[in-house]
Write a structure and sequence with these properties.
Blueprint lengths: L1 E7 L6 E5 L5 E3 L2 E4 L6 E7 H7 L10 E7 L20 H4 E6 L7 H11 L10 H14 E4 L1 H20 L1
Antiparallel strand pairs: 1-6, 2-7, 3-4, 4-5, 5-6, 7-8
Length: 168
């Protein structure tokens, strides 16, 4: 099992994860996407809260972690260090992750619908077609997609470079 973790100095509500297969599961302060039995699943939680419980001082107002847990297909399958950057974890195939930008001027009615959708209180298909259209437009203008796979590859390249510098 390998964990790939991303920390964002944003409140959880400023990040949106859309799973491709099923609705998320909620347990305490953590949101789970996917099944633990699959070869990869994602969870989102308040990392600041976790660290502060352990007595670690966090200077940021918010710290949200998006963590992807990946399993090799077989338990004995190992991955050599030099191949880590070539792994296809399929994070972006399974999950779309967005961060909220500026919302700008939005009618109160649409703001309320967007809030209910973002909180997971109502699914997009439950709104009228007109409201769905407005919400999709707002989301496309105000939310920026985060490429987790690219972030992973860049981080692995940096870590492998550091190791080579230590070794040679």
């Amino acid at each position: 099992m390998m964990d790939v973790a991303y920390d964002f100095e944003k409140d959880k509500s400023a990040l949106k994860v859309l799973g491709k297969r099923r609705r998320p599961d909620y347990y305490k302060d953590t949101i789970y996407f996917g099944k633990r039995s699959s070869d990869g699943y994602l969870k989102v939680y308040n990392k600041k809260k976790e660290l502060e419980r352990k007595g670690v001082k966090v200077h940021s107002e918010y710290l949200t972690r998006i963590e992807y847990k990946w399993k090799a297909r077989t338990k004995r399958e190992g991955v050599p260090l030099w191949k880590l950057g070539q792994l296809d974890l399929k994070i972006d195939e399974r999950y779309e992750v967005y961060q909220r930008g500026e919302l700008g001027e939005i009618k109160a009615e649409h703001r309320a619908c967007l809030w209910a959708y973002e909180q997971g209180l109502i699914e997009l298909h439950e709104f009228t077609r007109t409201t769905q259209k407005h919400i999709k437009k707002i989301l496309s203008e105000a939310w920026e997609r985060i490429d987790l796979e690219k972030m992973y590859r860049l981080e692995i390249e940096n870590e492998v470079e550091k190791l080579y510098e230590l070794l040679y």
